[in-house]
Amino acid sequence: MGSHEDPDWLTKFMITVWYIWKWRCAYCFDATEKIPKEKGMFLLNKFCEILHALQQNSQIQANRSRDQSEIWVRWEPPPGGWMVLNTNGAAKGHPGPAGAGGVLRDDKGAWVICFLKNLGYCSSVKAKIKAVLRGLKLAKEAHMQNIWLRIDSSAVVSMLTNQRVWHPEHSCLLHQCKHMIDWGGWEVKITHCFRETNKVADILAKMGSEGMFGVTIHRVPPVGTRDALYADSVGVLWSKHTSS
Question: Are residues 109 and 224 in the same domain?
Fold first, then answer.
């Protein structure tokens, strides 16, 4: 194609071809859509309307890009003497078939134990809370003393740290979690983590939703988790876009 002084000529050309096609179909198939008499004026108005919308969209995308920054995140082992408990819950619907999963790793990043659980039908929030509760029970049964609980749901973290009002639907589960956390035989630290650093627990939760009803404990990593475990162990960095 040759050069054109109008930078929008290609957009205008495509708009023109589109309306010629529409009018041709209306004429051939006796459609109810009216064909404008002043086609030239109609197209000029459409050019202005569509180009203005495209310009606004470009501005929105540019603003969104300015408001976001890219960071690099990875799974980190805890300090010496601590265990990391990553948990997650997943539901295919609201509510829908749900599962929970969690994994305990030591201060070297080595696998200790994991669980996965089919929860039946519930919401994703309830699944995440149930995952926390089951993970804490697993840690207590394993006689852990210093637990760093990492959850990729900021809402659940806020509930567990009393920064958000509890919904009545979740109160019973949250009371059980708080009772476990405040038990005097250990220290529990609770923080939010990015989804990119919670991949193992996410895989376990999905496995739970697709498995038999009830809890399954694994003392050896399930096959489906091994790639994610390896990525965590070698410190693979993941790109994450966050709001400035």
Answer: yes
**48 and 169 part of one domain:** no
Q: Which domain holds residue 121?
A: 83-243
Residue 131 CA neighbour count, 13 Å, CB half: 41
| 92, 178: one domain | yes
Name residue 149's beta-bridge partners. Answer: 85, 190
Answer for the pair 163, 191: CB distance below 8 angstroms, yes or no: no
Which runs of E-coded beta strand occur in 28-139?
A: 68-73, 83-91, 96-105, 111-122
Radius of gyration (C-alpha) of the chain in whole angstroms = 27
CB atoms within 10 A of CB 43: 16
pTM above 0.85, yes or no: no
Provide the pLDDT for residue 48: 87
89 and 148 both lie in a single domain: yes
pLDDT for the residue numbered 2: 45
192: in domain: yes
Q: Mean pLDDT by 10-residue block, N- to C-terminus, for the chain (244 residues)?
A: 69 89 80 80 87 79 68 93 97 90 96 96 95 97 95 94 85 94 92 96 95 91 93 91 70
What is the rounded end-to-end Cα distance, in angstroms, of the chain?
42
